[in-house]
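ARCHIVE CARD
CATEGORY: sequence design from structure
SOURCE FIELD: tokenized fold
FIELD CONTENT:
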């Protein structure tokens, strides 16, 4: 997620255009061909592939095991549900897809990033140039030209056709990262295709969701902040007339309300006024936990225990614990 944000910020700073496509797969976990998965594991020199193949070849399921009309079902796709190895096996396949895509070294986001901003040596020596990032089955690809982006999409199509996965075109979006308003108005909406279907192009101020974060192509994370605020309010109101002890009610709010703030804090920039607003909501929740009116002094919950306060979890404390320099 940080890489996505960084590319958006650098594209704006350098006044360049970058094409980004967020790819969605249809039922990705269950569509992977077991034969393709075995070939991927051998390519990565993973041991005991034969053992895994024997396990999967002998795996069957019956919906009604003791019923005479129930059929025995075998599988040639997917991985075992609930198995501790399943996720790693699936990730190996996605890593292979990213490796194949990354072999197109002449295609990347094209931005000059790094301490050395001169020349092209950073591409070979520092590895700042890349054309894809991924987390589990969420993959985004980047290119600085339409031709390059279509090439990457073609590579993705070939790989998914080989392994049995399918790209969900209706949920795969093109985002043009470009702050130059005049250039956006003069150049037509890009046409990129997957399996003959044209990808939907999002506007720069449309909200898109990636890895649980809602943001815009211009880097605005307002959508994420709105969701966080709404969930904190819902958690606050949940304990308004609770039958729990104050300690349990506080723990409930901390889990449901502050938990969602924890998730967003590391990657979302909050202004001082926004943090003050979230802090106000949190203090109201802590008062609810103790069945206290809103008019009660807030210092009781804000002050540290050394000053006779309860020292409850507040937004600024969460933000500072996420700081990378600490």
């Amino acid at each position: 997620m940080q890489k996505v944000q960084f590319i958006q910020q650098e594209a704006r700073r350098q006044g360049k255009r970058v094409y980004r496509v967020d790819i969605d797969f249809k039922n990705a976990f269950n569509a992977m061909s077991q034969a393709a998965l075995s070939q991927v594991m051998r390519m990565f020199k993973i041991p005991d592939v034969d053992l895994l193949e024997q396990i999967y070849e002998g795996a069957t399921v019956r919906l009604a095991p003791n019923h005479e009309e129930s059929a025995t079902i075998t599988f040639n796709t997917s991985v075992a549900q609930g198995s501790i190895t399943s996720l790693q096996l699936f990730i190996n396949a996605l890593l292979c897809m990213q490796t194949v895509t990354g072999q197109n070294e002449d295609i990347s986001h094209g931005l000059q990033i790094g301490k050395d901003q001169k020349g092209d040596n950073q591409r070979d020596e520092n590895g700042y140039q890349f054309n894809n990032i991924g987390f589990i089955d969420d993959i985004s690809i980047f290119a600085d030209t339409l031709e390059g982006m279509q090439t990457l999409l073609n590579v993705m199509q070939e790989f998914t056709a080989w392994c049995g996965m399918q790209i969900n075109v209706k949920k795969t979006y093109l985002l043009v990262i470009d702050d130059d308003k005049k250039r956006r108005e003069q150049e037509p909406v890009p046409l990129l295709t997957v399996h003959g279907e044209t990808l939907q192009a999002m506007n720069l101020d449309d909200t898109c969701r990636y890895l649980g974060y809602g943001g815009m192509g211009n880097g605005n994370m307002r959508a994420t902040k709105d969701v966080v605020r709404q969930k904190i309010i819902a958690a606050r109101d949940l304990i308004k007339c609770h039958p729990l002890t104050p300690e349990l009610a506080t723990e409930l709010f901390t889990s449901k309300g502050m938990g969602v703030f924890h998730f967003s804090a590391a990657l979302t920039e909050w202004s001082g006024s926004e943090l003050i607003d979230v802090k106000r909501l949190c203090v109201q929740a802590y008062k609810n936990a103790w069945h206290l009116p809103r008019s009660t002094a807030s210092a009781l919950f804000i002050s540290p225990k050394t000053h006779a306060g309860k020292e409850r979890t507040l937004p600024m404390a969460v933000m500072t614990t996420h700081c990378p320099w600490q």
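CARD ANNOTATION: Residues 115-127, 322-326 have pLDDT under 50 and may be disordered. The longest helix spans residues 246-265.
SHELF: design records, drawer C
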